[in-house]
């Protein structure tokens, strides 16, 4: 059958709710989501096997984006599709992949790493996998309460299998963290297997349809061949064959951090679409007292809140793709046995994941606030987008912890610069900073990019000097590092911002040569707005570390305000261009037709509290008190 995936999925009635899911209980919400998840999975499987064929392009992305509308919350199979399969594909041997990656597999899996006691510091993970050479098996065990797995999506009820991160022991020697495939529930009855204690962790701020779970093993045995063995092996006699790089096991986190940047761009485009369209419909106060009330989008302060969201969505789209291509390149190199580019990719992924998630959640919240009281309604969908987005600041590597990873990388290059050793081209500016080869400030995108590099150099130097000072004062390295950690994270944050500005500007300039002149003008305005916005936000840092003057800052401010005015006529067009369907946006405030107040009233009528003219609580609780008082 030939299908157009958007239309096909949108026409499956069971995927769309009559009652908004906010009115369902925790249990009903999950059951509703799981029903839909398996309808979607069936479509994906049919696409995979060729039973249905598609007529449109970008299908996985299409399905991915439509599912935001279907679930409003999260697909309970998100980790099954996004992490379980991809980890097997990346870390299992060819034979294991042939056995496990069957499209009609009975396995529904998840990625089980975090424990009650350890999330960030994964070397502290306590679950053990001990090799028993007499039976050719690993024994998975949870030695104490803090070793219980806690958080994995889909683990609570959906998954019957999982990839478990555990400390590998062979003949009493610990070889560190490795990944094991373990079946946890019977494929037919779905009952937990003997030796497995599994359940759901309870309601959260968001992600409530993802049945995040807990898991404990009581000496649970799995075959030796269930350890993921592409990069590392345990042989039948217990011989341990080391990987080429000891962090290859962390590869799934690296890949997810990279893909998250694009996902966050998409969440930003949803929030921007809702807030900009609403701001074009909403009228509140005249600007001049004798004029009619104006669209709130005409208030320059409102443009300041919203246009940076539009621009940031483009930034993360561009940088997400740039990182995706880098990941592809580095993975191909690793395949050839060359690990040289892995540290750089890890350092970039850490700081970009940290800053993209932090920016996205702050900007989604800004969009919600920009919609006034109505933004607080669940029916605006902004609270759900915020709850989803802010989780990304924590999962897949907590914000500060990831910035500190990138700081290790920056400090290494600063040390080279300080010792006058050769630096790679992309860090040549460290040497310029040390030699005080400062460029004269230029009020242009290129000038701002140079200014941001000076901030990175200045902040890395400050952190490095503090670190050295702590060491000279007799502190051990780890303690000295901890004492400098505020400055170290500041340096990483600055590094991420300079990368975002540079990559976005360069890619936009290149893209502008390939599109119509009128489109190129708008794209460059957005890119320039992004750079100006952050230059003004960070003007204190620029004053400290670059040659910018007060007059330059005033000129930047004027240009920024000019850009807001230039973008204003295209604002609605720019969010329409994100091309997000109403069914996916799920927002009374952001629908394409602008029927905001009508939709709000229609949604309110769905409230169960409006089913009866007089709710029975009146007779039970209110009347006895109020009428008694009257007597
Ligand atoms: C339209 C858009 C389409 C897009 C679709 C895609 C959507 C996808 C959405 C996905 C949604 C996901 C839903 C949520 C799922 C959530 C899942 C999880 O949260 S899983 C659990 C994640 N947990 C973490 O991230 C833990 C964070 N902690 C760590 O990663 C590590 O503990 C650590 C890196 C902080 C430290 O590790 P440790 O072993 O202790 O390191 P050392 O200190 O010994 O060494 C540091 C050394 O190692 C290098 N390193 C670290 N990690 C890596 C790596 N991954 N690759 C390469 N190198 C690595 C590091 O650079 C240091 O090197 P050095 O030379 O020594 O400086
Ligand atoms: C919605 C959601 C979904 C998730 N899904 C999964 C999943 O599918 N699978 C899975 O395995 N896990 C999952 N997780 C767990 C997630 O990966 C962890 O919560 C995350 O890695 C953070 O670890 P933590 O909770 O231990 O935080 P902690 O590390 O305890 O952080 C608490 C505070 O301590 C600080 N801190 C910790 N270490 C340091 C340090 N070295 N230096 C400075 N500051 C530090 C942090 O900055 C933070 O402020 C999920 C979490 C969430 C919220």
**Helicity, as a percent range:** 40-55%
Question: What is the averaged pLDDT score?
Answer: 95
CATH topology of the largest domain, by name, is Butyryl-CoA Dehydrogenase, subunit A, domain 3
Number of helical segments with 4 or more residues: 21
The total number of structural domains is 3
**Bound ligands, each once:** ligand L3CPSR6R, flavin-adenine dinucleotide
Biggest beta sheet summary = 6 strands, mixed
**Do you know the CATH architecture of the largest domain?**
Up-down Bundle
Write down the Rg: 27 Å
Query: Which blocks of ≥5 consecutive residues have pLDDT under 50?
Result: none
Protein name: Acyl-coenzyme A oxidase
Family: Belongs to the acyl-CoA oxidase family.
Domain Acyl-CoA oxidase C-terminal: 445-625
Subcellular location: Peroxisome
Note the main attributes of this structure:
9% strand, 3 domains, Butyryl-CoA Dehydrogenase, subunit A, domain 2, 631 residues, six-stranded mixed β-sheet, binds flavin-adenine dinucleotide, three-stranded antiparallel β-sheet, Butyryl-CoA Dehydrogenase, subunit A, domain 3, AcylCo_DH-like_C, binds ligand L3CPSR6R, alpha/beta
Could you characterize what this model shows?
The chain is of the alpha/beta class and about 625 residues long. It has three domains: about 1-75; about 105-245, Butyryl-CoA Dehydrogenase, subunit A, domain 2 (Beta Barrel); about 250-420 and about 440-575, Up-down Bundle (Butyryl-CoA Dehydrogenase, subunit A, domain 3), CATH 1.20.140.10. About 55% of the residues lie in helices and about 10% in strands. It has helices at about 5-10, 25-50, 60-70, 80-90, 95-100, 250-280, 300-335, 340-370, 380-390, 400-420, 430-435, 445-470, 475-485, 485-510, 515-535, 540-545, 550-565, 570-575, 580-585, 595-605, 615-630; strands at about 1-5, 55, 110, 130, 135-140, 150, 160-170, 175-185, 195-200, 215, 220-225, 235, 240. The strands form four sheets. Strands 3, 4, 5, 7, 8 and 11 form a six-stranded mixed beta sheet that branches. Strands 6-10-9 form a three-stranded antiparallel beta sheet, with no helix packed on it. Helix 7 (about 300-335) packs across helix 15 (about 515-535) and helix 12 (about 445-470) packs across helix 16 (about 540-545). The longest helix has about 35 residues, at about 300-335. The mean pLDDT is about 95. It binds ligand L3CPSR6R and flavin-adenine dinucleotide. Ligand L3CPSR6R binds near residues 123 and 396. Flavin-adenine dinucleotide binds near residues 113, 152, 207 and 400. Pathway: Lipid metabolism; peroxisomal fatty acid beta-oxidation. Its main location: other. It is found in: Peroxisome.
